[in-house]
Amino acid sequence: MIIGDRLRAIREHRRLSQGEIENRTGLLRCYISRVENCHTVPSLETLEKFARALETPLYVIFYDGEIPSPVVILSEHNGNRDGGWGASGKSARFLHKLRSSLSNMTVKNRAALLLFAENLVEGKHANRIHRDRDLTGERSSASLRRSAQA
């Protein structure tokens, strides 16, 4: 079995161009061509990117039976079966872009991004508490301290 031929067959079956695979995986189009033409052997991590971009389980790429394995779609509507956020339109495009960006990040950078997002949410929560106190007429302890010092 030649993996490059299998990747090309799955891509063509899905009617995707190498440019679309490039956008979905972050891999260069020339590299995708080299893999499909068997000039280079991709790593397992790269094959996982191909599988995600082709929306097929990884094992399908390795299937070498006499009767070709049917190409399986992982999930309908990006895993969102109820038609909610991320199911279609602008939110689906954003979700796809976010998924591909996260898959290209290192583990350390993903952890840093998660920490930043958690701090951002905590900051918004703290700001909301202070804003709510101001709306109810209650003064925060910091505000009371500043008044006492003046």
Quick structural gist:
The protein has 150 residues and is mainly α.
Give the termini separation: 80 Å
> What's the number of domains?
2
What's the CATH class of the largest domain, please?
A: Mainly Alpha
Q: Note the total helix count.
A: 8
- The count of β-strands is 0
CA radius of gyration: 24 Å
**CATH fold type of the largest domain:** 434 Repressor (Amino-terminal Domain)
Strand content: under 5%
What is the CATH architecture assignment of the largest domain? Orthogonal Bundle
Structural commentary:
The chain has helices at 3-13, 18-25, 29-36, 44-53, 58-62, 89-104, 107-136, 141-149. It folds into two domains: 3-105, lambda repressor-like DNA-binding domains (434 Repressor (Amino-terminal Domain), Orthogonal Bundle), CATH 1.10.260.40; 108-149. It has eight helices and no strands. The chain is elongated and about 60 Å long. By secondary structure, it is mostly helical.
